Amino acid sequence: MNRLAKNWINGEWVDSHQHIQSINPATYEVIGQYANATVEQAQSAILAAKTALKKTDWKRDRRLRAKVLNEMADAFERYADELIEILATENGKIKAEASFEVTMVPAKLRYNAALTLTEYGRALEPKPGSYSMVLREPMGVSGIIVPWNSPVVLMIRSLAPALAAGTTTVIKMPGQTAQTNAIISRIFSELPSLPQGVINLFSESTGGGSRLLVESPDVPVISFTGSTATGKAISATGAQHLKRFGLELGVKPQ
């Protein structure tokens, strides 16, 4: 098997100068290779997401967002068997657990598709004859940093509400699950209604792209699942730009 998993940036498959082997952790068999994303490619993903926010109707058209989320749910159902197989092979899960993870995804997407069509905001009467209206608007580009242990469902858990809210996204996926990531990217590439640049996904073995997402002033929202120590570091760095965070943190053995 000699599959090369590429990154998905601005609606295109993007290679890199370094290819790293994907390994079955149960047998140490090489199951493919992946393009290890560079910091420059992560930067291009941020630029693509920022451009899509400005030049497409994504942040303004909630019906478009709901349509894309429902298309994504259908696509994940079509690719479920393939995803389960590669997730079990590459991640080391037993198939029952891989199946549990993958089959949760469509419902989460359809739930957020429904939320997208909910009216946001409120109107108040601070004094007779005067009205104050509060509207919710997308903040900008969301950066999503995904762990290796449950990459499919944890990615969707952050991506779906980010898309529903009208943000564009840059997803950093772990290199350990690059072949799984490639199928997810293929799903994104086949969504007929998804505007170019709204979703960007790259895989890396180092933390350069993740650090860029946290440090960049062009990414005002960060979602991260990982260790408490890393979460503290992310919060401290992102606070310089008053970023908003969604953090699921735990403790790794020392």
TrEMBL record:
The keyword Cell membrane belongs to this UniProt entry's keyword annotation: no
Keyword terms of this UniProt record: Oxidoreductase
Domain Aldehyde dehydrogenase: 13-252
One Pfam family per UniProt: Aldedh
Gene Ontology MF annotations: oxidoreductase activity
Highest rank taxon of the organism: Bacteria
Similarity comment: Belongs to the aldehyde dehydrogenase family.
Protein name: Betaine-aldehyde dehydrogenase
